[in-house]
Amino acid sequence: QVQLVESGGGLVQAGGSLRLSCAASEGTFSSYVMGWFRQAPGKEREFVAAINRSAGTTYYADSVKGRCTISRDNAKNTVYLQMMSLKAEDTAVYYCAARRRPSTNSYALPSRYDYWGQGTQVTVSS
Prior knowledge:
This protein is mainly β. The protein has strands spanning 4-7, 10-13, 18-24, 33-39, 46-51, 58-60, 68-73, 78-83, 92-99, 115-116, 120-125. β7 (68-73) and β8 form a beta hairpin.
């Protein structure tokens, strides 16, 4: 079972940037589709971005498209989320997730992911 550990969250002013990282515990990282989700207080967990196994294809929620970039380094067992032009509404706990099934169908559904990290808080002050 893979363990995921997020880092890089924090407090940032509106318009600022953050880079989140998610390190996986095992060497089969390259076999997982990886995703980032977020959950604000009182709201459901929502999709942010996903990346296929080879990093050749990426997907983004409309709310972050153009402001976020997901990437992965399979040699380092790590997936990243670069966030720019942050807004107050980006404030949430950010989670990374791993999916065993190689297909990227339904990539935006949390239920399609098998492993989750503990989350990292991102707070954007306006």
